[in-house]
Input
Amino acid sequence: MKKNDLKVLYLSSFPPRQCGIADFTQNTINAVYKVNPNIDQKVIAINEKNAPKRDYLATVKWELEQEDLDSYQKTANYINECGADVLFLQHEYGLFGGFDGIFVLKLLEKLKVPIVSFYHTIPLIPTSKRREFRLNIIKNIGNISKHIITTTQSGKEILEKECKIPVRKISIVHHGGYDIPYPKQKDKEELKKKYGFQGKFIVLTYGLITKSKGIDYAIEAIAKLKDKHPNILYIIAGTSHPVKIKLAEKDYYSDLQLKTKKAKATNNVKFINKYFEEEELIDYLKMADLFLIPYLVREQISSGVLANAATTGNCILSTPFPYAKEIIGEDEERGYFIDFENSDSIAQKIAFLIENPKIIEKKRKEMYQFGRNFTWQKMAEEFIKILQKK
Output
């Protein structure tokens, strides 16, 4: 295979589906094209159960129906016959059909094409439910794959020690993030004026809204701060998760709004109920004074939200899930940790930073410099090296 002759086939969710991994794959394709436009990139898009008919880009050459076992056989046949040099699998348990996505193994076992697998989730906590079953799935994927990519050192250690995947098959590559000039205070003030937030101290959370995001604790924290700091504005940007809205969490978004009203914090909490396009999202990331990630999930090894906040030079407050530890640093070199499920912890850290703007600026600069290591282009360069390996 010539260096510029690579044909990559992605197996992933894909826009217009509203999904973090869909965005990840789209951004990866765009970044790889910028690094090397001679690489041929095509997509097999995964459709969830009862998905609407989607108007995919021409990049999507095939569709896999998540819960249709026959679709996995047909997709395997397509992959083997389409001429791809490598399948780039985006793996997350909820993407595929069967219990914890086990149907994906039925597909991979039939492939003659080399597989590179990116693990968006690895079960880290020993006491977590279904851990052994889930580990067995990624162990089997790892055995079939020629290479595995994870985003954290802790994830790599699990793959080595518990899944017995050879270290030569594993690489650590951070989730990619936006590459923009460093946002200065002048830039922030201009954007606040543009969006009608002049004079506000903006705390931002964005992404698909689910209970696991811990936003209710953040609202409680803002309610505790609003009297002493009346100019604080907590922006919650994002819609209810399009899958989970149909299930047990369908009322969570309205519950958050009701909680805000009961706390008499409607002047200090703003809900923006939409899925941001890239340009507007970057504006909000540049405009924020603090970026808040109050997630409840204790074993998350990848986060596009966190990566984007980092590469756009934010001062980040986050619960200490594994990916946050690697981005912020165990000793809080580039941001601050807040306690899980603890509104007092959130309020105390925000109050401290409001009163110490020089510390915010220091952390922003440190995070921005660190983020230069994993912009989408840097990530794409790493992916290309891995995908080109024989």
Notes: The mean pLDDT is 94. Residues 20-35 form the longest helix (16 residues). The two ends are 9 Å apart (CA to CA).
